[in-house]
Amino acid sequence: YQVHGRGSPQAAPYMQYVQALLTDRARVDIDATYRSVPSEEAQLEFSTFSTAVASMNNFKVSSYPLWDPYWKMVAATPGTNGMVHLPFAATPIGIFYNQQLPVPAEAGLKLTPCLMAGIMSGRITKWDDPIFEQNPNNFPVSGTNIWPGLQQPITVFAYPGASGPTYTLSMWMSGCAGGWTSSPVVSISDGQWKASQVAGFNPRTSFTDPTTGQVKTIMDADDMAAAIASTPHSIGYLPVWGASPGDSLVEAQVVNAKGNYLNSTRADLTATVLDLWNSRKIPANISDNWWPITNTSGSGIDGGWPLTQLLYIYSYKNLTAFGSAGPLAKALFSFVLGQEGQALLPDSGLFPLPPSMQVSMLDAMAQNVQPRAGLPAWAFESKSAVGIAGMSLLTFSAARQGYTTTAITELKAQLASISRASQSRGWSRVRVAGPAGGGVGVLVSSMLNDLRERALSRISASYEEVRGDAAAAMHHLLPMGQVDLLVSDQPLRNSAWEDLAGYAANPTTVLQVPFLVRPVALMVRAPARITLRMSPCTLAKVLSGDVQTWDHADVRNDNPGVSLPSTPLRIFAVGGESSGNTRALRNYLAAACPSIPTDTFNTELKTNDPKDNTLVNPGMPRNVEAVALDPEALINDLAAAPEFSGIALVSLATGANAKGLSEVALPITAGSSQFITPSQTTKKEYSALLDGVNGALDLPNAQDDWSEFNIVQAPENRARVYPLVRLDYIIIPSELTSLGSSGSAVTAVAEYLVHPTAQASLTTVAEDPWACPLSSLRATSAKATFGAMVTLSPDAIKWAILDGRSVDAATQAPQSFGSSEHTILMSQVTHTTVITQQAEAVVQLAAASGGLSTGGVASYQDITDAAIVALTAQVRDAKDRADKAWSIAVAAIVLGLLIGMSGLIMACWVAARTHNMPAVGKQLGGSSDRYHAFDDRANLPTSTVTLGDVPLADRRV
């Protein structure tokens, strides 16, 4: 039996491993190969059915859909019944440049489809082109133009033939009306660049290899990366998979369909593909001509990546001509599109399909791809299967392995063992991620810093901001993801929860546990001593578009006697529609004003658009990312704008009132004449909210879907409590055995975040004064949830979180922690605690002295906060330097010990050899013969020297 394929080099490591794995699992001999060739060549070969049959090429893999003329050729060829596209993996395409800009990388080059189309078509030829000056996104925060003085010409690199990266880039650039209108790939027939270019312009498709001095054609991602790295002032594009950009290579940020700028490291590719699939930008019918209808650049989520490349298997629908290879090829497709095959993709640097798309592709393939009638089909057997079915000649049994896969499995086990040993003696690493903005990141980062100080063994718990809504960010928790635990300003959306629950062969149960309560404030710049009021239905009408100005009758009715202007009334939200604050507002209005359904809200909440000068003063320094993702930037812009410029929807934070903004008051309950602002409710009352809701509604279980939970649905339990609140969540898989010993550290971080001491020490003026901790009842319940519902690897060392000094009840002596260095001592005083306590004492003293007004105290708090942040940064920087020095010292000691031990062993060995040589020398006839025999060990006389009881010459090794 044999099955052979050719195609994209990106798929080669994965396809070759899968073929080796299936060959090992088969009882009969299988000859399976995969040859790497450019996608262009694979398409050309696939278009000629007779050639494919004669050369036994059973399938092809390409990084873009089959070219339209080729699809028509295959469809018209007798014996094929047409062909199918089987997408099985995804990878991002990034744009990289080698141009030194006088700004930090995060403020560097930002590209729109039109800007990139101008570069790739030859209309933009120099880095100081005026078009860069016209793009406000290419200005640093200071507002200084970075482009004058950069007169260097732009060197543009491209692939020489049709390719998936070029197809993907062109699809994105075609979003520029009139800027990129030709065929989205290099013409296959003549190899020339044909895409709205300036006459005579062609990108460079080769470079001088600095290691060899030879001219080299750009054939793959590594070639493209080397070309850009070795050529100053250049730009190019490549799959992020497999590339190793040098230090001089920086990735540009590109704009997606939602208007967000991000690079590939900030993108969520699996969530992007899911959105494209759900919106039918990826066709559902695998038998269709995908060339004119596939669009992977239009994802509508915040974290959607506009340069998403899919990898496709091409197969003829009728495999009769391939004989016995037909059923084998179909079995290979089934494995690749199945759960086990998809789970193997991350090991090759590829992203798997979303579960719903994977299941659909697998079913469609089974119905459309048909081998010769009468030939038996191959079957699959799991490793745990019982019986004799696996003995069948045509069964792939996971219980059967060859030497190669066994060796790989053993090497992985050894690596895991080394990792566990390293963890028990050194660092435990946990990666935490959460949404940008919303206040979650600052607080959690501080809590993780204190966790490192309280841990007896060394733990690295890092926090990364994810640019995207919670539904997109959740997919980082999947096995191919980059983080271990997620914190979020809202629960998982239903679709994301269902996808996670059905992800792998064993569904991933995801636990969602609230760990903070936050009031969400509506901040406005209004005249002094005026507290504006808003009834729920007035707010709902603002979102539905029925109320558009401040002097609308409904707004005036809520604020009798207040003079209101006729200017537009708009609500600005960090993160727009996808943020947790927006979800909290919708939940509040759904409960407090049910007469206006939330699905009538046809006015999207705006982010602070830098082009909108009604809010941002003309000429004011602007940065679209900082403004759109940072609550403080939104507050600062609103404070600098004229009165009644808009309402900022933000989680309540310190300093806003001191900047001249005031809180909008909401009625305590729907229809009540009593209004309340968020700061008029105490933190203790906010913390008790979940206890009241639990008694009235019953909270969902941690493993359940929380997307419909609405904390505002029980207003009768909230006397004198501000009603617009949100919950922050910890989201963690319940199955962490795949993480080995690191799983226990992940659980420890989750338990630490809900620990009362950790929460209380940081919800202060220094960090986030209105991030309200859970009540002791809810905190205890949350910690018990993690302990009882998270499954760890059997060899994982459990972490312990101790409130104080552990004392033996019998001896009253301090208990030994035994072998468990994996302990977190909550009694350990951290740098943050000391600094915060000192700052609070200063503020309280200033307030008690009577020398400061209320506004003065608030301003003094702002000054103190800034000092705290700076001092904390200095302390932690010094601690980091000390940690590095400690690590270097330990490494030096270990190296010295190893060298010393090696010398000692060598000395002992020499002494032993010298001690044994006289007897041998005597037999050989004197001291000169002794030393000769010692040096010429390969020619020892076999008659006198034996190994065991067998002469050395007769011993076979």
TrEMBL record:
Keywords: Membrane, Transmembrane, Transmembrane helix. The keyword Transmembrane applies. Coiled coil: none annotated. InterPro entries: PBP_domain, Phosphate-bind_PstS. It comes from the Eukaryota. The chain crosses the membrane at residues 885-912. Residues 2-339, 481-754 form the PBP domain. The keyword Transmembrane helix applies. PANTHER family: PHOSPHATE-BINDING PROTEIN PSTS. Belongs to the PstS family. This is PBP domain-containing protein.
